[in-house]
Design goal:
single chain; 126 residues; alpha+beta; globular
């Protein structure tokens, strides 16, 4: 799993999602053209707006976890909510208590992507 960045495409939103676990900072700097800070000692995970030009220009959200140990349900949920809010901000949408479903589905999809990376179970493996 080291130095692997997993990419997911939500199809209905114009942003990709990348999930990285235990990826060293040199790999992050090489993969993304966006200036993404390294995780400091106190951080278990982080969410960043990111852009890559390799193999082509694409924008999205990167969720970095220090290790699989930090991929607990509460941290995945927390980071998924941050990532969903960043995507909503990008498309000019607001999480609305009177119309919660779009936001709830996006948070669930992001958490599901994190869970796939954590367990290594992807649809094509079935």
């Amino acid at each position: 799993m080291a130095n692997k960045i997993y990419q997911f495409d939500p199809n209905i939103y114009p942003r990709l999602l990348w999930v990285a676990v235990g990826v060293d900072y040199a790999c992050i700097k090489d993969y993304f053209v966006t200036d993404i800070p390294d995780l400091d000692e106190s951080e278990l995970a982080g969410v960043y707006n990111a852009r890559t030009e390799k193999p082509k220009k694409r924008g999205g959200i990167l969720i970095r976890f220090k290790s699989k140990k930090e991929m607990t349900a509460d941290i995945i949920a927390h980071e998924s909510a941050h990532a969903a809010l960043e995507i909503f901000d990008y498309i000019g949408c607001v999480a609305d208590p009177k119309n919660q479903e779009p936001f709830a589905y996006l948070v669930g999809w992001i958490a599901g992507c994190c869970e796939k990376v954590k367990t290594g179970k992807f649809e094509d493996d079935a």
